[in-house]
Each structure stands twice: as C-alpha cells, then as structure tokens.
What does this fold into?
Amino acid sequence: MILRNLRPIASLLLAAALLLTGNGVQFTLLPLRGQADGFSTVALGVMGSAYYVGFVAGCLFAPHVVLRVGHIRTFTAMVAVAAATTLAYGLIPEPLAWSLFRLLTGFALAGFYLVLESWLNDRATNATRGFVMSAYVIVNYLAVAGGQSLINLYPIESDGSFMLAAILAALAIVPVALTRSAQPAPVTLFRLQPRQLYDAAPVALIGAFAIGIANGAFWGLAPVSAAGAGLDHGEVALFMSIAVLAGALAQWPAGRLSDRVDRRLVLLGLLIAGAAASVAMWLLAATGPLMLAFGFLFGALALPGYSLAAAHAYDKTPAEDMVATAATVLLANGLGSVIGPLAATAFITPEGPRRLFLFTAVVEAALALYVLYRMLVQAPSNITEKTSFDLVTTAPVGGVVTSDELDPADPSVGVPEGFVQESNAEKEENAERESERAEHAVEHENQKPAEPSFF
It folds into this structure.
C-alpha cells in the first residue's frame, strides 16, 4: 500500500531529495569556505541574511511566475538558477558576489518549494494527502541533514563540493522532465494578514518572527561557531546534521503535548530550556562528543518552536483564513531569519566564536518573557476549540504546505492557464493506471531470458 501511494509522486520526491541535498551541502560549506577565504564574520552574516531576503521575495513573487508560465517551466527555471549559482561560488570568491548568489538561491528555493508542494497536493487524493505530504516533509529533513555530510568528500578549499552540489541540483530536473504527470495545479497566493493574526494570536506572530531571528542566525553562522569551538570540518557537518534531525524528531512529541495543554506553555518550556542550552554552549569549552551532544540538544529544543507558533496560529484562525494565516506565519519567520544572521555578527568575535549561542539565548529568553506575559493576560484556548497538531502544516519546509486540497475558488489560490480540475475518482484512476503500468514493466523485465555468462 505504501509503495502504491508513493508511485504517483516518486519523481517529485526524487527531485526534492536531489535539490535539497545539494542545498544542504551549502548551508555548512559556504560559511566554512568563506572563513577559509578570509571573509569577515559580518560578510558571512550578510550572506546568511541574503538567502532569506531571496526566500521571502520568492514566496511573494514566485506564484505569479507559475501563473504566467506554468509549473514545469517555473520548476526548470528555478532549478537551473540554483545549479548555476552553486557553480558560480567557485568562479567569484568575493563576499558581495556570494551574497548575491545566496539571494538568488533563496528565491529559486522558494519557487521550487511552491511548485513542488502545490504539485504534490494536486497528485494526492483526500485519502492519501496526509501520507503524501508527510512523506515530502520527511524527505526534506533527511535531504538537508544528509547534504551536510557531503562536505567531507572534498577539502573545504577546493571547488569539488560546489560541483557536487550543482550536479545534484541539475539532476533534480530529470525526474520531473520525464514524469508523465503534466497537469498544472493551483498555487497558493501569499495574501498576508499580520494585523488580524496579531489581534487573534500575538504569540504566534511574534513567536514566528523571533524564532526566525534565532534559528536564522544558527543556520547562517553555526558552522563557523562550531569550527571555532574546536570541531574539525567533518565534526561540523555532523554537528549540523544532528541538529536538523533532532529538531525533526522533537517536533512531533512537542506538538502532541501541546494538543493536551496550552501550546504557549510548551513553547515557553522549550524556550527556557533552549536558552539554558545555548548559554551552556557559550560558557563551556565543549569539544568533540560533548559539543555534538549540545548540537542535538539545541536542535531538539530550538527548532520545533516554529511548529508550535504555527499550530497556535491555526487554533485562532477560521477555516476560510487558514491559507492566509499560514502565509503570514511563514513570512514572519522569514523576515526574522533575514535579521538573525546579521544581528548575530555583533556578538561574535574572533576570540569568542561561541558567542553566537549567547545571541540565540538572548533572543529565546526575550521571547520566553513575552510568552509568559501573554499567558498572564490572555487565557489559553479551550481544548475543544484547538486544531490537532499536524506535522505537515507546521513544518518550516518552504511554502505554505496544506493537508487539504487547494480550492480554485479560494481567493488565496491562483489557477494557472489551462488548469483542468480533476475529481478524486479521476486521480485515483490515474494513480491506479500508473501503478499497473509500473507493475507490468517489472513483470516484463523479469520475463526476459537470462544473458549468457562466460565466467
């Protein structure tokens, strides 16, 4: 049954795995390579912020590109830009150029996420949508975590890792170009409602923004801080991978716990514990296994915060405004991520690379105080009124992921030219046909006569 549900979307998941693995390489490679090339900490912070500037811009403008030229052309263009900019790092090793390349990469990744998520949503039926989107979220986490380890294949000072990341990105075009699924799907138009969300759930909006500041700084500068703490490049890659996986593993239990109690209370607990872990990472001269353990602890405590903020927002949102709320939370997080890497550079010095974690501790502690204040002045949501925590809609993986079918009549949804709405029955029939075609191909392959062997 699992394989049967995956077959119609296998090409899309493979494309996601390839491109996001290549992008995962860059999250660790670029700060380390920039440091080796003599880039200042401020320059590295600007690079980290530039990626999120591009990402926010892509969230806002990529839907209009899809509406104009369609999914396949947009997908191809975004992947081509991602691959080309990855190769360009080795050609122009200058901070300003690299910041521009990171901006272009962020824009391309936002467009890639948007196309892929709307396409996956279109390929799913009501019965399989939760499974399909959950598989996508898992592939995303695994690809980003796995990409970190690939920097060990080549010396940081060489261009081999850039070439490998570009190859992976370019290969992402192949499974989509060869897919039989050519139907365009509706896309989410990013209609923002910051005032309405703040009035309904201020912790969700402020929380998503502040968590973006802390986590954006971590993604942009943690490799440099970990290296400055005494980890070699292989250990830095492992440190980042562990943090990603720990955040992914902690997201579900934290979310399920927040279904039973005030979500703000769970977020407050994570923030306090995360700030304490960050202070420990700043003060203690931890290296090797102990530093890796801190990486796991930081990821498990800091990274699920966005999911809880998003879930709290959905608790306070009418069903008809769910897409707009998701867009607002995502872009608030993105704007925070723009500020984070650059603001953190004011804390980091050559003599104190660990002070990145002092910065994250300050941000988490400030947000914890705000959450505590809101808990004192506003009663928690009634459990019967809360939505159940959903791994898909709360995962910070890219665009606005939804576990529901996008409705072309929704004002937050745009419909590309030539789109034809398929019923669930037609989708199931097409999925069944693709499964039968794959099974016949396997049977035909098994019936071929064995090749003669001379050994």
Notes: Residues 41-69 form the longest helix (29 residues). The chain is about 70% helix and 0% strand. The two ends are 40 Å apart (CA to CA). The longest strand covers residues 187-188.
